[in-house]
Design a protein that fits this description.
CATH architecture of one domain in chain A: 2-Layer Sandwich
Shape of chain A: extended
Helix content of chain B: over 70%
Largest sheet of chain A: 6 strands, antiparallel
Shape of chain B: rod-shaped
Radius of gyration of chain B: 19 Å
Mean pLDDT of chain B: 81
Helix content of chain A: 55-70%
Number of helices of chain A: 21
Oligomer: heterodimer
Mean pLDDT of chain A: 86
Structural class of chain B: mainly alpha
Radius of gyration of chain A: 38 Å
Number of helices of chain B: 4
Distance between the termini of chain B: 15 Å
Low-confidence stretches of chain B: none
CATH topology of one domain in chain A: Alpha-Beta Plaits
Strand content of chain A: 5-15%
Largest sheet of chain B: none
Largest interface: A-B, 22 and 17 residues
Chain lengths: ~675, ~90
Amino acid sequence: MLRPVQMSRVVVAGSKDVMEPVIEKLHELNLMHLVNYSGGQQSFEPGKTVGRGKEFSENLIKLRSVSRYLDIKSKAPDVKFGESEIVSQMDDLLGRLGDDVTQTYERIAAIDAEVKTKQDQINALRPLSVLPVPLELYQGYDSLAVFVGTVASAVDAEVAKISSNSEVFSGSYKNGLVAAVFAPIGQAADVQAVLAGHGYSEISVPKLSGTPDAAIASLEAESKNLLSEKEPLVKKLKDLRKQNEDKILAADEYLSMQTQKTDAPLRFATSNNAFVIDGYVPTAEFERFKSSIEGAAGGKVHVEKLSDAEMEKCVESGEDVPSKMDNPGIVKPFELITRLFSIPEYKEFDPTLLIFIFFPIMFGMILGDVGYGLMILVVVALLKKKFRTEGWNQLINIVIISSVWAIIFGVVFGELFGPMGLWGKVFGQMAHEEILALEESGLFWGEGFFGPLGRIGPAEMFPMYRLATNAVLMLIGVSIFIGVLHCSVGSILGIKTELNYGEKKHAYFERLPVLIFQVAFALLLLGLIMGVMPIVYIMALLIVVSIVMLVMGPEGVMGATHLPFYVSNLISYLRLLAIGLASVGVAFAANKLAFQVLMPMLSGGEHLTMVAYVLGVVVLLMVHFINVLLGILSPFMHPLRLHYVEMFTKFYAQRGGGVEYSPFGHVRRYLKA
Amino acid sequence: MAITDAGVMYGLLAVGAGLATGLAGIGAGVGEQGIGAAVVGVVAEEPGFLGKGLFLMLLPETLIIFGLAVSLILMFAWTPFAAFMQ
């Protein structure tokens, strides 16, 4: 569980005439992580695509374009199809449906383009409607130059100065002027210069006839017609998508699987008559793998695994042995957090189990509110049906487990939508005599600002009320304790990891002293607080010992300079308390604002008025809503950080991370098995 | 000048606590802004870097926890602290 699955390096060699059945079997088994053949061996070359590879890839490209036109995205399947069903319908899918979809899509694209052209023409015509010139008169002259456009100021006088034969039409449009200048072609350059001086910007006149207004009307009618033609086409595409979505996804899956198989030899070493496949198989599965492959090839193939000693050499030489994380169902979602950081290397520990233990507790300790916990639990459980992809599902499972812990800690802290919230109403207030009795026995953790709250649990210990002084002090201790535990587990795994890699010096003089230092530092603080001097002296001695060990270590004096980092690691766990306090503070403020400020203030007298009540509740809900949103985010991010920064640096991903085990094969989503 | 008035002393403690958290927060924020921008840039090119990027981005955040620890000690361990002073 704490280590990736044990792997064996396996070689499959055989005669080329059994290559296809072997590939078929390999794909079906979905067990072997292939190592690509990179050349370098005499008389062996990477293989070539076999069978109908070309046809499959062409079909796949066609199918992908169809699914792009239909805007099909991967999703959880509603119906599954058999392989033969897909094969028999493939021609129909790519031929009839493909043509239909392509034609429809292209017609829609053409309509869109045409409508856009018409719209551009309309935009160009609008300013011209203020000029008394029919459209056909703007072009087709041999001896006249025509300038049409917007100008900043009137140009008539200046144009007339250049050429008496010219004619200028102008009119005002919106905030500017529109002018059409007709001048003899010989003076065109001069006229242009004048226009440029007036901020001329050209309008390209569409080649149409009649008045601009009539032209605009007819263009608008035409684009309306086009759009009404487009509407049923869009609906048709939508219908086609609905009918064929699952089938197309299944066909895509089928074709991908086929191309995977036909392209597989590109990764093998082949000679004229033989092929060699190199890769990794989980050791536990090797026997099954061997017999299945040999059965499929009728004995014309040789399957062999490297001995343990050779495998060890393989790992030491820095080969990328794939890691397959191996965790039971309930822990599995937390692989998401591990994977987000890095895949464990083959010889490293897989921290998923530790994340499963610590992460939800930390989340719960920070959030710690029965009301918020329940709310998150319900919302997320409802979302679970909506988001069915694997990543989302894992995230949702993590939040579910975490929110259960939030509820548990909510009971410990006595919080139901904030400390004052509903707790007192549900469990009642505590009598004065009881408080006195508890105080005497040392179990009273303070009553906070709103009086004593009803207690539950063994020895009536709970709630311990997070805003009270005693509880804060105690929670500081608890946070640091969790920190020491968390970091020490990390350090112990760090020592073992170094030993796995054969780095004894690193294990005993780099990782071990850190472990000693952490524990001793925490106990030293404890001793100081409790005033037990012998513990303090012993721990101080241990700290000195750990520093000496670090100096003797591989990094020398530099090693000891890392110590402040480890101290800050431990202090960092205070966030477990601190962020929780912040969220309690907001909830507390919301309750106080609504019940003790807004409601009495707005009602004025003794009795609550309706307005005061409604306003108070609105404010209450709003602030709590914001708080619960923050209450999902920060209790998630901060334990994440505590794992990534404080724990992982002790043992994980120190060598750049591993390669994920991805066996040759395919897990069917849209096809029946 | 010795501060004898408990009210004044408590007030100064509260101001100190506020400064400790607030200034530490500004510091952490300044530290994180550059890292955050860089991480977003890297993740846009290579989404696989998200976890490590997050790790780097969250590093300076410890600073604010130090400030907060000081504040907590000032605010909540005040009574024992005051007793210790006398």
